[in-house]
Amino acid sequence: MAIGCSIMAVVPLLAQYTLAQAGYGGGASTGIPGVSSFVAPAGYPTSAFSSYYPSPSGQEPQPALYDPVLNITFPRNLTNPDTIPLNDPDPVYYPQPITNLSTAAQQAVIKSILSEVSEIINGSSIQGNCSKCIAALSVAKSAAQLAPSLVPAAMVALCTSSGFHSASTCAEDFEASTFGAIWTQVLGLADVAGLDGQYICSSLSTSFCPAPGVSPLNMTGLFPKPKPANAKKPAASGKLVKVLHMSDFHLDPRYKVGSESNCSSGLCCRSNALNTAIPAGQVSNSAPLYGAFTCDTPYDLGLAALQAVGPLTGTSKANPLAWTVYTGDLVSHESQNELSRLYAEYEEDSIYGMLKTYLTGPVYPALGNHDTNPEAIDAPHSLPGPLGTQFSWNYDHVAGLWQHEGWLNSTAAEQARLHYGGYSVKNQYGLRVITINTDFWYRSNFLNLINTSNPDVSELQAAEDAGERVWIVGHVLSGWDGSNPLPNPTNLFYQIVDRYSPHVIANIFFGHTHEDQQMIYYANNGTNQSLSTALTPGWIGPSVTPLNNLNSGFRLYEVDTATFDIFEAYTFYANVSAFPSLPSTQGPTYKFEYSTRATYGPAAHWPADAPLNATFWHAVTEAMERDAGLVSTFNTLQGKMSVKTPNCTCEACVEAKICYIRSGSVALGRACPQGWGSVQSPYKAKLLGTLLMPQATESGRHFLILATSHWPSTTHYIRGSKVYQPQPASRNHQAQTSHSENASRYSNTTTHPAPAPNMAPPRSFAQKAAQELGLTTLVHSPRDVHLLLLTRLIRMFAYGSSTLILALFFAALNHSDAQIGLFMSLTLVGDVLISLLLTLVADSLGRRRILIMGALLMTFSGAVFATVGNYWILLLAAVLGVISPSGNEIGPFRAVEESTIAHLSDATTRSDIFAWYVVFGTLGTAGGALACGWATQGLQAAGWSELASFRFVFWVYAGIGLVKAGLSLFLSPACEAQQAAAKKPEEEAEGVDLQEQQPFLADGSAAPPKPKPVPKRIGITTLSAKSRATLIRLCALFFFDSLASGMVPNSLIAFFMERKFNMPQGKLGTILAAASFVSSIGNIMASSIAKRIGLVKTMVFTHLPSAIFLALFPLPTSLVITIILLVARASLSSMDQAPRSAFLSAVVLPEERTAVMGIVNTVKTMSQSSGPLITGSLAGGGRFWVAFVVAGALKASYDVGMLTMFVGMKIEGDRKPEPADEEAEHESDEDSLTGDAPANRSRS
């Protein structure tokens, strides 16, 4: 069994390692464009920049950058990692007041409005959160119109006084120099009483107002011409060129080698980024030279990636790239108070300069949400006065750089200046590249909350008239799971793609999520998703930055020079988990990851000469419906083969991924199952439909959307999205045209019957059984879980072996029954003290250290028992060390392990892992009892004395302690409490994707909230009131259950049967082992039952019959009937353990788990400690049988109490609520406007 568990733990790692070495879809059949791997040279390539500021040895370089557009050299202190600025010196803009008031009058206005808003929030005259929020906005609008410069301070004061956020978070969210001036513009200019107000309130918190749905579209007059009836793309030339797709560089010039890479909040690997769970001045994980999973790209990693491009893609100055698309985000994930215009301009100058140095061919960049200041904010030119040009500084700067690098001519550069960084350019091959500023559909651009319109598709129309093919390049993707953009603009964008595809728009490119993803745009708004309606693919490029929990990567396309279709896509990556162990003589290794055609083509039955277009990708999704393993492959590649990527093996995840790929708009993405979108943290899935928002009924909603960036009316594509409703006749005509065109266009492809969209893939009985029994969860759990299960197995093997002979050992030493009972009780008392102490300090001293310490105590006790016969010395060794008198858990192990498993898993799979945790323990106990029984019997038969055979068992026990200590050394830092405490808040929020992280109005808008430090000592007084109340009730019930268990432990059951039936140890060990094996079968079924009837009912309905069997156990005079009762009881008695562990994990806060489990185990052990004493007294008086009857009655009382107190409690990870229950939960969000709910600001 131990060997099997070791293999189980290693298999997932070996599989991932094998894939990483070979690459998906590699091999001679497809070939690769260049070398298979590139090892970056050690040391920084100083030729990358012309001059440098001095920097300490071992730290990243500090280029002294000269900006040719601004005609300045950026100062050293701007990027000095030890002097990070904490305030933004840039100018702020307010709407023009509607009248001129004196300062005193303005202050009076603000005071009056604050009072009125407070009354709305706290009063009862207005009911419902959404109504309160909109009413408060309507009042606050006057403040923005009369005293705009005082509004930010008033918002900070209101935020703080209402308890909406902490004082520091309120300041960071609403101070004038962060987002306060922007919110003032929104208040002053938006229609706060209408749909604008609903969007504003939803942006602040979805507990205020639900996110509005898609408004009806009115497309009258949007398109200058109808879609041509017989539009065709040009014939393929057969000549392929190489095109690079790079995205989300997120250069961090303030990266500090050796700083904390496991910080508690914000961007790690910074001098000011700390882990609050450890003492000040200490570092838990040191930032490597080349980056980490929680950090942005240091210069050394970014330059290694750029150096790898040529060798991996097979390009050079002599054989250049045809062109490169860069899909946005240059700037690191700064807190807003650390950002400035100058810092953004530095990043733009630095990265564009590196791209020019290392990439051959022109680069066509788009701006990302981080490429501005304040982050994600861009203003339409239609705003009044200077508000319409408040971000022109950025457009002027990037346009000048792009022209300076030779990528844009003067005409295109001027377009970029006027159109928010967007432009249209025809390259040397005849392809028209149109870039857009997707901040104008991004939900975190608060200025989108102001109603604007004026769409324009003139550039696309001109391309159609000229017979040109177009690539659209943006940053924030338009669809996937619908979590990032606003619904109306992406709905309009979808209609535009439909109108101009597939004959004009060949491909669409995004970044933003940092992940390797794909989308498909269909005809007729995606209402019929099939091979014949798939129009255009959307390629989401992998990021260079590893943030969060991803590998670093980029992609190469092979593109036809006439159709500009993609015929092959190769992705390359660097394994970030290897960075800490890199030798000083070697840089990162970038290597070939996979070929898109070779990975997905065979399963999709795709012809070798057909392009990787939208039809290809729809065929891939059909193959995914037939084979869930293909989705698992897609999921692994989505994270660029990161070791941090969660597995996607269940039907819900498979269905969701297929749905996301087929969703090119928010409306389609929101209709998919939520919670499976990002691989940057464990999945937090919700039931289908729980995130579907009510549809807005108001017409005329406008949003800024497609065009060269924000698409102003005089520019290309679109600038605003007035909502449109297509005419049925023209719509049908377009659909028919699209169908017929696709049918002829892809006549060379192999077709097959298409399953219904989003149909769950067929699954075999074996797959269903594996999932039902938790095997799927077990195999795909982290390595640490496998190690914890393995140590549990061998520990319980040791306990099982010692408990069989413990009472017999003392009898062989001629100690009385009363002394044996006293020993059992005092041993348990000692365990209470040691376990409580170690449990309370486990999180502060380190869980791994405590597990190792406990294992060494096992070795100490085993060695003493193997060599000493004195009763009091043995008692002292048992009290101070670890000896199990009952065969059950003893010591600090279980509390620490269960708390660790709880934070390494999520609520949806936790009961599966706990079930196997119990099974491994039961099998270990059974194996130990079996081995011990036959070993001692065999040794005695070979001439050993009874006492000598027992001492041999204790030597084995001591050796197992050493093995367990050795295995604990291999546990990773992820097991520690500070790893759980340092989790970003969004990782704990269900249904929120990590791709655009930090919520706007959660603590730390520009950075996630800093969690409270994990206390050094955790006692019951530190628990929340709710947890304390729950814990008191549980401890009262567990006391009776554990007292009963202590009265009849396995050792005393063995003693009772040996006395009553005069059984040899070998036979007795076999019977107990068989009972344990039967118990294991029951434990395996516990998780499956819990999923159907709930945790509490599973605990009670399986445990109660076992209590009855226990009470009847001493009555039969027949050995056979006694064994039947023993086995019947064993089959049910421990089925409550896994649900109980999951129950405990769910009813307390994550940071309370170790303390609560330690307290519970202490109470249980204390009650157990008196059990053997009672049984010993009864046995000494000839009434041994009474102990079984009393124990059974106590256990039955425990079951009734659990059912009475907890059967109605809603538990995380318990049965999923019915839709009606979920709807009620959403309605309850309206109860209080003052709750500190997370808002919708996000970052990536």
UniProtKB/TrEMBL annotation:
Membrane topology category: Multi-pass membrane protein
Family annotation (InterPro entries): ASMase/PPN1_MPP, Calcineurin-like_PHP, Metallo-depent_PP-like, MFS, MFS_dom, MFS_sugar_transport-like, MFS_trans_sf
Key words of the record: Membrane, Signal, Transmembrane, Transmembrane helix
Keyword Thylakoid: no
Molecular function GO terms recorded: hydrolase activity; transmembrane transporter activity
Protein location: Membrane
Keyword Metal-binding attached: no
TM ranges: 793-813, 819-838, 850-883, 914-936, 948-971, 1031-1056, 1068-1086, 1106-1128
Ranges of compositional bias, category Polar residues: 727-752
UniProt-listed PANTHER family: TRANSPORTER, PUTATIVE (AFU_ORTHOLOGUE AFUA_3G04000)-RELATED
Protein name: Major facilitator superfamily (MFS) profile domain-containing protein
The species this protein was found in: Friedmanniomyces endolithicus
Lineage: Eukaryota, Fungi, Dikarya, Ascomycota, Pezizomycotina
